[in-house]
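> forwarded from #structure-qc
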């Protein structure tokens, strides 16, 4: 798999979670480039420079951040909302259309469902891609 930033050793994960918790990192964007292995990623089999960069992640981003937050009490529910909703538009030209619930702004609301057991699976995601980087990860809630 080829995406940016590349996978790191496991100890890097806790450093990133701490960065999100203490506001050293303000957003957690995915490197969402849903290239399929078949006919796209496999083009780099003999020459890695021909592998399209990126991985599918935008669909599962919110449930994985919520899982990480809940799993170890890493940050508050309010911080979760900041990371996935409030802060990202402030890094772009979407203000005020995407930053607030107000007259004249878009009504972008997300409702989470807490199914008893949900696993990320390639065959059930909505992206048009033939694999999941998060195959088999059990999450506690999913956006509806």
């Amino acid at each position: 798999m080829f995406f940016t930033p590349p996978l790191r050793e496991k100890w890097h994960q806790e450093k990133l979670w701490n960065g999100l918790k203490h506001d050293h990192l303000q957003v957690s964007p995915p490197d969402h480039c849903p290239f399929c292995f078949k006919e796209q990623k496999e083009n780099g089999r003999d020459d890695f420079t021909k592998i399209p960069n990126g991985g599918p992640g935008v669909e599962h981003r919110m449930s994985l951040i919520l899982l990480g937050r809940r799993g170890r009490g890493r940050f508050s529910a309010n911080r979760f909302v900041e990371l996935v909703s409030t802060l990202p538009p402030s890094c772009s030209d979407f203000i005020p259309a995407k930053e607030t619930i107000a007259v004249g702004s878009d009504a972008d609301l997300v409702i989470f469902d807490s199914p008893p057991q949900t696993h990320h699976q390639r065959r059930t995601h909505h992206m048009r891609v033939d694999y999941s980087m998060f195959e088999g990860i059990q999450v506690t809630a999913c956006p509806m």
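QC bot note: The longest helix spans residues 77-90. The mean pLDDT is 78.
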